[in-house]
Amino acid sequence: MISGSPVLMTRGIDDTRYGIVEDVGWTVETLNDTVDGELADLSEDVQARFARIAELIEAIGLPNVREPHVKHIRDSIWEIRLQKTPNTEIEIARERAKELEK
User: Fold this and answer.
1) Is the pLDDT of residue 21 over 70?
2) Which residues touch 79 (CB under 8 Å, ≥6 apart)?
3) Looking at the domain assignment, is residue 1 inside a domain?
4) Taking the model in full, what pTM does it have?
């Protein structure tokens, strides 16, 4: 979550033509252009930190990345720890996450 904006972290499954299911890792992607704009508005050092944490999530999986890099907030909301996130921003993220579940 960046300033209340969801960043999607999904775990992919590869279903091959032989019916073999294989874990293909985690993918980090932004929700939409609004989130892309919010990321672009961050300072270069914070953007670099975001990129490093995203790479770490993709390499070892979200549950294996811990504080100070990520923090589980509640439900399906995880925070990429770039800076202190106010509660109002967490509520915005919860509302946006509900939209994804529809």
Assistant:
1) no
2) 1, 70, 71, 72, 73, 85, 90
3) no
4) 0.68
